[in-house]
Amino acid sequence: MSVEVDVLLQEAKESIEAAQNYRSELQQRLHGLNQARKQVRGSSGQAREALRRHFAELQAAASRLLTERLNSLLAEVDAIEADSVKPLDDCQSLIEHGVGQADELLREGEAALRCGLGEKEDKLGSFTKKAMHIQLDSLPEVPALVDVPCVSAQLDDSLLGLLRDRVSRHGAVSSHPPVQIEELQERPGSILVRWCKVDEDFAAADYRLQYRRSGSGGSQYEDAYIGRDCEFLVLHLDPHTDYLFRVCARGEGRTEWSPWSIPQTGYTTLAPHEWCPGTDGYILSSRRNIALRNESSQSRCPVLYSNAPTYFCGQTLTFKISAAGQMDRRDTLGVCVDNESSVESLQRDQAVCISTNGAVFVNGKEMTNQLPAITLGSAVTFDMEVVNLFPISNNNLSEGGNFKLRVTIGSGNREVVFDWLVDQAVDCLFFGCSFVHSGWKVLVF
After folding, report:
1. Using CA atoms, how far apart are residues 235 and 378, in angstroms rounded to an integer?
2. How far is CA 87 from its chain centroid?
3. pLDDT tens for each residue of 219-266
4. Which of 35, 159, 264, 299 has the largest count of CB atoms under 10 Å?
């Protein structure tokens, strides 16, 4: 009986645990459902507000434009009226003056006819002279109606038809943006953002990526990238800090951008790559990720190392050349196991590097394969993965003699791949550079 009770107790415990897990899963789904509902309602409210604000601005702008056009046309009517009425007013004044003269002449003539015989001759003579002076046969010309303006307004419904057509197609409401962020991959002091189209019918010409710090005290979104690529490495990010990323697209032949994707939160735990300060012959930027070779010395070519071994296998290390000096075969960009200060070049043991002339060196030996020469704007990448010749103890990475890395160095549109044998197992590496002549500036990320 006790065995049966124990079995029942065990089954009860398992059922209780299963119920607890089930309830927990349901609660998580309820939380997800609430988040989804919040997104739908929140985005719908924002869309309504955006539509109302946009169309209110359009209405105000259209009313202003129509008023300006009406006032312009009324001003044209006023100008035509003023220019046309002035000669008519002048003609009217001339005619009225002639009517006045004719009235006065009529009164004098009637008076002359009524006067006595003694005065009649003088008055008739004076009247006759005055009549001849007035030139009673000279009349001012009055323009015919066809010769004076008849102002009219030419109006049709074409504008209304165009407006009706354009307004009926203006704006759109979509339930999903045409592009979404697909992946956020942490890099040293940066995040690689990848996105993709989710609307296959949308023909994208350009993409626009923005980011900002997360949280209530976060800054405004700022542009990180505009172009045709579907990924971008956002640099100069502080480790262990949340950032929000969003992306939109612009269709072929369009000027407006699509709705923004749903913001995604990302952060990096990896410290940014930095050059080591205090190295003779080099000036560093404030973030220590840009180094400028500022002194030319033929006798010594100092190596500038990273501040710490921050390069890990599986990552991509990039050197970007933003200024170029005179080329020398002893110049190097590369990765090494240690930061030995007594050497003048990375063309040595326990290091792999590329010279500015494109030659590749592995543990101090030049390879037969060669990459394009490094010039202004060149980007040199290093990718490494671990390849073990023999098993290595998981508890002691320092066991040596049997550890190698597969290295890929890319420059321009070419790359070389080789295996690099190191004396001991390593999980992080230094990077470095050396230039004989001044003028070289290199950004590392």
Report:
1. 18
2. 61
3. 799 999 999 999 999 999 999 999 999 999 998 888 889 889 999 999
4. 264
